Amino acid sequence: MKSDDEAFLAAAEAALAALPDWVTGTFENIAFIVEDFPAAATLEEMHISSPYGLLGLYSGTPISGRGAGYGYGNLPDVIHLYRQPILAYAAGQKMDWRRCVQHVVVHEVGHYLGLSDAQMMAIEADQDGREAVTED
User: Fold this and answer.
1) pLDDT given at position 133
2) Residue 134 Ramachandran class (φ > 0 left, ψ -120 to 50 alpha, else beta)
3) Which of 40, 81, 88, 114 to pair with 50, CA 20 to 30 A apart?
4) Where are the domains positioned within the chain?
5) Residue (of 127, 88, 131, 93) closest to 110 by Cα position
6) 52-103 confidence digits (pLDDT tens)
7) Is 94 left (phi over 0), alpha (psi -120 to 50) or beta?
8) Residue 134 pLDDT
9) How far apart are CA 93 and CA 85, in angstroms?
10) Which CATH class is domain 4-62+76-128?
């Protein structure tokens, strides 16, 4: 039987593996980190009072914003997944926590790509095999 940490990591890896090839083909100089909670400094910087108020975080330079000056020597971009807030959110919404992990992964990868919320919803819908809902 897997530990809770191992099961969460496996769900995050499965969410990444389910992304379309055109997305994963862009991964360069990026790290994925699973932590129980966001750092206090991160919450303070983002003006979030509860450690449960942040499910994930992308930090770095989105691909869409990288110019000629971006290259060798840049620190990796980072996608953080916050395990306890994700699990608590999923329980509160009465949703499968693995689905919540998938949603957060898609959302944060979308920020890495520089995608809009509508584009992120289309990727997630494609993974579910359902038609995307777009906002005009």
Assistant:
1) 41
2) beta
3) 114
4) 4-62+76-128
5) 127
6) 999 999 999 888 888 777 777 778 899 999 999 999 999 999 999 999 999 9
7) left
8) 42
9) 12
10) alpha beta
